[in-house]
Write a structure and sequence with these properties.
By secondary structure, the chain is mostly helical. α1 crosses α4, α6 packs antiparallel against α11 and α7 packs across α9.
Length: 212
């Protein structure tokens, strides 16, 4: 996919105000896309969220596809970083524990980005087929690392792919279903401490089951 570039970035001298406006618009677009998905989001909604007129917004971004593309590119760069950091030379349980913690931190700090990605996947990922191919290559690489740990007796015998899927499911749940989590936990347990509670539980769940 070609790299998405806002209209103002193509001018010879991009001013500080132009850069600030672009970030304001992208922030508004993230809010709208994460709530309504790509299909449900409109330029009018994004302009209203950004507090600017539609013509003004269209000067910077002529369509919602470019905004969505830029947000997805940023998201994937951030989202995949923890998996890329899984170190083949490290202690397996320590590496997996760190990966789980980083994924939970992302669920805490970037819930809208998580929902943006979830919406795209639920729609069949029509705008990110190349990115899914790249994701497969990365997961294949890390699954091979996990298989090596297993063959050397450093982890219990598990399916590396389904282990990674399980980590995604249990950590991203706290972003994608945050309203449900807080509603079920109730007022006393639904504060920021819910992520630390989740981390302790997931340590017990995964690390206990992965010990050789």
């Amino acid at each position: 996919m070609p790299v998405a570039v806002p209209r103002a970035a193509k001018t010879r001298r991009r001013t500080r105000i132009q850069a600030e406006r672009e970030e304001l618009i992208l922030e508004a677009a993230l809010e709208v896309f994460s709530a309504h998905g790509f299909r449900g989001a409109t330029i009018d909604q994004i302009a209203e969220q950004a507090g600017m007129s539609k013509p003004n917004l269209l000067y910077y971004f002529p369509n919602k596809e470019i905004m969505h593309r830029m947000l997805i590119d940023r998201l994937l760069e951030t989202w995949l970083a923890p998996l890329k950091r899984l170190n083949p030379e490290g202690d397996p349980l320590t590496e997996i524990r760190s990966y789980i913690r980083r994924k939970l931190e992302m669920a805490r700090d970037f819930p809208r980005e998580s929902r943006l990605f979830a919406n795209e996947i639920l729609q069949g990922a029509p705008r990110i087929p190349d990115e899914l191919n790249d994701l497969k290559k990365l997961v294949d690489e890390k699954a091979s690392v996990i298989s090596g740990w297993i063959e050397h007796g450093r982890l219990a015998r598990v399916d590396p792919y389904h282990m990674i899927f399980s980590i995604w499911a249990t950590t991203q749940h706290y972003a994608d279903f945050d309203v449900q989590v807080r509603a079920v936990l109730g007022a006393k347990r639904s504060g920021e401490g819910r992520f630390e509670d989740a981390a302790r539980y997931l340590d017990q769940l995964f690390l206990g089951g992965l010990k050789p």
